[in-house]
Design brief:
By secondary structure, the chain is an alpha+beta fold. The protein is globular. It starts with a strand and ends with a strand. The N terminus is likely disordered.
Length: 179
């Protein structure tokens, strides 16, 4: 399979030349608060969770064809897209313009496709490669958010583990983006 570049008003997005499938799929959901259990309770150990206040929850899945360069483009696009309402400014603003936090959740199921009555994940990259891209994604988000404001938080889930998520929203304000 070959990669091609699709021109858009804001730049280029990578796609699969054969069928236009994405290399990274992301869902962004605004929230008033969110809690993600990153380690389940065990013998003599309480469950561990991370929390954010107002901000966005980013569900991310890396598919075959993902590259480190594309990961950087995805982070830049997500943190700069104008999705959030602001009391101080007219129109929508990016998460970098708000006093908002970011919660990153690895979500391999975003790469699933229905085949008959089952879901298959043949488009997902290997777990080892996905973990590398996920760690890069987190690092780039932290760098971008912290360079913009020392008071914002970037929290993240644990790659490869099933996690419990609780999100409080003021409406199902959710977007899906394919890169």
């Amino acid at each position: 399979m070959q990669k091609s570049e699709i021109s858009t008003a804001k730049g280029t997005l990578a796609s699969n030349e054969m069928n236009g499938t994405p290399f990274v799929r992301v869902i962004v959901q605004q929230c008033l608060s969110a809690t993600l259990q990153v380690h389940p309770p065990g013998d003599d150990v309480e469950a561990q969770s991370v929390e954010i206040s107002r901000g966005i929850v980013v569900y991310v899945c890396f598919l075959k064809g993902s590259t480190p360069e594309l990961v950087a483009k995805v982070v830049k696009s997500l943190l700069n897209v104008k999705l959030s309402e602001s009391a101080d400014k007219p129109g929508n603003v990016s998460i970098l313009e708000l006093p908002g936090d970011v919660l990153i959740v690895p979500q391999a199921t975003l790469g699933g496709k229905m085949k008959g009555k089952r879901v298959q994940y043949h488009s997902n990259i290997s777990k080892d490669e996905g973990r590398i891209f996920y760690e890069k994604f987190i690092t780039l988000c932290e760098e971008a958010v912290h360079s913009n404001s020392a008071t914002k938080n970037v929290k993240h889930g644990t790659y490869g583990n099933r996690q419990v998520l609780s999100v409080q929203t003021n409406g199902p304000y959710t977007h899906i983006f394919d890169f």
